[in-house]
Amino acid sequence: MRIAVECQSPLLQKSLELFLAKHLSSSKKSDIIIRDEECLNESRCFYISSDENADLVKPFSKSQLILALEKKYNDLYPQSSKSIVEEEDVEETMNFEILEKRIELLTQEYQENILRAVKAFYEK
What percent of the chain has pLDDT above 90? Predict the structure, then answer.
């Protein structure tokens, strides 16, 4: 899912950019455009406001935002079944494997250093 953020509020703009960093795209290439002003003729528009007729009512959490965006995306593109959460889980799994290997290497190095120090102490 590609998302563009076009908000009048700089605070809301930056918050959304941080929350959705992995999914940001230009407005021409995006599947959904998030705005804090009501948009009438744009089907891809996702409206965030304090109004009750907004797609997402402020204040909101990151999980509420993601769930609301997934709902909007599934309404717009029903043939696509892959969700944001699934994409993030796959990426986190890959990052976790890299982290696991790095920790394993560091642990081995640490163990070797400790063994060298112990041997050097007892060889004196």
Answer: 31
